[in-house]
């Protein structure tokens, strides 16, 4: 008899005797491990090919994430078929444990539902700058149960990065208000207030501020119009005036000149 066959038979006998596993269950374990190895090998091979052929960071990230989800789905389906003999057995099994799982895994299930909502509805994507639950930052990762931001603001001025990565549960999209700085309309309005005394020539100061705003902050009309047209197809967004303006108001100690512009 072939020595390799003898070795396999010896291992099989030892497992059956010491672990109490029958030939059928042992075969299921071997098949599951084989599928797992095949999925890992495919992940490594395709991953190397993606790294060689894709130089764009964002595109490589999206392709890699999609590959991970597809291979994970294939592994889950193959495991179900191996252990339950098809979807019928799996459905029956789910019917027995679904009630308990719904209570014990409430938060993970909500986060999973949040991931589905984010993937389908796309309130934000990787690369967008958002604010949610008091946290602001750029989205750098999306996963099944959480997404990650590279934080901006906080103790750092001018919306600069703090260097911290914040991991937020996906379920927050159902409980917190999301502000997206990027999607829909890529420009945002900003203001710079300047106070001058009542005795000063505030009219001239207003003219100077308006000249500065028009010189350094004006968005080209064609670019702004194209962006508004694109946004209006999805949202009811319409701006009639996009040019900078300086508002005047009176405070207790002087005249406040507020330069308003889009950036």
Your description of this structure?
The protein has helices spanning 3-19, 23-53, 57-84, 87-104, 106-121, 202-216, 221-232, and strands at residues 129-132, 135-142, 146-152, 161-169, 178-180, 189-196, 245-250, 255-262. It is an alpha+beta fold. The strands form 2 sheets. A 5-stranded antiparallel sheet has the order 4-3-2-1-5. Strands 6-8-7 form a 3-stranded antiparallel sheet, covered by helices on one side. A hairpin with a 4-residue loop joins strand 7 (245-250) and strand 8 (255-262). Helix 2 (23-53) runs antiparallel to helix 3. 7% of the residues are buried.
Tag the structure with descriptive keywords:
20% strand; alpha+beta; 52% helix; elongated; 3-stranded antiparallel β-sheet; 5-stranded antiparallel β-sheet; 263 residues
Choose one word for the global shape.
Answer: elongated
Number of helices: 7
Strand order of the largest sheet: 4-3-2-1-5
> Helical content, roughly?
40-55%
| Class by alpha and beta content | alpha+beta
Average of pLDDT: 78
List low-confidence stretches: none
Report the β-strand fraction as a percent range.
Answer: 15-25%
Radius of gyration of CA atoms, rounded to a whole number = 29 Å
Largest pleated sheet: 5 strands, antiparallel
Q: How many DSSP-defined strands?
A: 8
**H/E element sequence:** HHHHHEEEEEEHHEE
* Termini Cα gap: 79 Å
């Amino acid at each position: 008899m072939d020595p390799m066959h003898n070795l396999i038979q010896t291992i099989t006998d030892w497992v059956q005797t010491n672990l109490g596993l029958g030939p059928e269950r042992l075969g299921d374990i071997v098949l599951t491990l084989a599928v797992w190895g095949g999925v890992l090998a495919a992940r490594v091979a395709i991953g190397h090919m993606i790294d060689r052929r894709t130089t764009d960071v964002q595109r490589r990230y999206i392709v890699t994430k999609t590959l991970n989800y597809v291979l994970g789905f294939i592994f889950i389906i193959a495991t179900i078929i191996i252990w339950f003999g098809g979807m019928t057995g799996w459905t029956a099994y789910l019917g027995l444990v679904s009630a308990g799982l719904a209570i014990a895994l409430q938060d993970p299930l909500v986060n999973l539902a949040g991931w589905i909502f984010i993937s389908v509805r796309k309130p934000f994507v990787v690369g967008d700058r958002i604010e949610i639950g008091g946290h602001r930052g750029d989205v750098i990762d999306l996963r099944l149960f959480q997404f990650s931001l590279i934080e901006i603001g906080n103790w750092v001025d001018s919306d600069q990065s703090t260097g911290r990565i914040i991991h937020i549960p996906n379920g927050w999209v159902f409980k917190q208000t999301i502000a997206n700085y990027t999607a829909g309309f890529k420009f945002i309005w900003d203001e710079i207030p300047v106070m001058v005394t009542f005795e000063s020539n505030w009219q001239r100061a207003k003219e100077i501020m308006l000249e500065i705003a028009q010189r350094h902050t004006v968005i080209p009309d064609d670019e702004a119009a194209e962006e508004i047209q694109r946004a209006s197809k999805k949202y009811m967004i319409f701006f009639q005036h996009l040019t900078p303006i300086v508002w005047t108001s009176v405070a207790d100690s002087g005249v406040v000149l507020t330069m308003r512009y889009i950036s």
